[in-house]
Amino acid sequence: xxxxxxxxxxxxxxxxxxxxxxxxxxxxxxxxxxxxxxxxxxxxxxxxxxxxxxxxxxxxxxxxxxxxxxxxxxxxxxxxxxxxxxxxxxxxxxxxxxxxxxxxxxxxxxxxxxxxxxxxxxxxxxxxxxxxxxxxxxxxxxxxxxxxxxxxxxxxxxxxxxxxxxxxxxxxxxxxxxxxxxxxxxxxxxxxxxxxxxxxxxxxxxxxxxxxxxxxxxxxxxxxxxxxxxxxxxxxxxxxxxxxxxxxxxxxxxxxxx
Length: 258
Ligand SMILES: [Zn+2]
Prior knowledge:
Elements: E1 3-16, E2 20-27, E3 31-37, H1 46-49, E4 56-62, E5 70-79, H2 82-85, H3 88-104, H4 112-127, H5 132-151, E6 175-178, E7 183-185, H6 187-190, E8 196-199, H7 201-212, H8 225-242, H9 248-254
Parallel strand pairs: 3-5
Antiparallel strand pairs: 1-2, 1-4, 2-3, 4-5, 6-7, 6-8
The structure holds zinc ion.
């Protein structure tokens, strides 16, 4: 059986039988994979610690084609992200990212750009002292991840009449965003259009920036607080509609009471 080696982020871990665990990984080289770690719960070990969700590791596993549960051989911690695991706010928001990737990414779907983005965002959250930027990071990741998964929002032209947005569309609530159709609605088409949220054009500009910016420059961008809350709601609704089911981690991460 061939041995595969790659770096990976642990997305999820569930117990299996008396002593084993099934782990889901987002790997750089092979996309999302699942593996079984035999006997890992019998003794407290570095091997066990390396398989906790939100740990960045170097993973070696036995791989065979047409097998969807691999046998994990060894894993070494590259970055434990302890400052995330020790802070409940950071932890629940980061687990939301794991849940989003785990629910949406298909097995063996390789996406190195999204892998890098995920890793960089975890690094920023880990060292971040200001918790308020974290929601913005989640919005940026969600937008890019959904775009890479085939749900890119249409931001340049109106989804109804296909006209480019005009100067008159700028400013407060002159345009809309259609969550289900995933795109912007111009001032002319806004009246009578159903299922559209009225938004400020600043949100569309921010979304465009979010899709292309270098995430390491997060400190250089900002959005007025009111717009940030509106953007956040649009993105969460967008995730809900486009991934087909509600994520369990969603309410916890954003303090929504059901
Ligand atoms: Zn239009």
